[in-house]
Design the sequence.
């Protein structure tokens, strides 16, 4: 008998002051236990010099990497960059073309795309796009986490 996978919601957002510039990401992981009680975990970090797209991807990656076993995951993001890469099947083309885009140029952020694919592998993933800054409770919280992280005193180095 196989164990039923835990259903987890991951909400994400990235922020950048200047692009590139100082940036941060915020992720919220939520799941409901057997008693119907929600549990949440917030993740965030800031970087000295990065891009908004890198922060959007890192928000998803860190959320997935925080999961300790395979789960059913719904990822809710306001990043068209992230969502469209899968829904428009860009990522499949990039992989087939050795991480080159339709213009035969290297795909940006390939390090993070590869890390994301590895982080997604053990899970059953559903993607949901929402309009950013539109009053969605968890998107707004993720935005606050990302902006606060981008303004913190202990910013990390990114590999841009």
Sequence:
């Amino acid at each position: 008998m196989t164990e039923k996978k835990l259903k987890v919601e991951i909400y994400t957002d990235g922020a950048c002051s200047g692009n590139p510039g100082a940036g941060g990401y915020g992720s919220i992981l939520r799941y409901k236990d057997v008693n119907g009680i929600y549990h949440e975990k917030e993740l965030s970090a800031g970087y000295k010099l990065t891009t908004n797209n890198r922060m959007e991807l890192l928000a998803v990656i860190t959320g997935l990497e925080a999961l300790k076993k395979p789960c059913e995951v719904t990822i809710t993001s306001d990043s068209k960059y992230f969502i469209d890469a899968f829904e428009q099947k860009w990522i499949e083309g990039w992989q087939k073309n050795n991480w080159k885009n339709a213009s035969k140029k290297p795909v940006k952020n390939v390090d993070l795309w590869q890390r994301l694919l590895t982080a997604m592998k053990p899970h059953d993933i559903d993607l949901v796009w929402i309009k950013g800054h539109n009053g969605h409770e968890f998107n707004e919280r993720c935005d606050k986490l990302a902006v606060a992280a981008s303004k913190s005193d202990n910013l990390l180095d990114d590999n841009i």
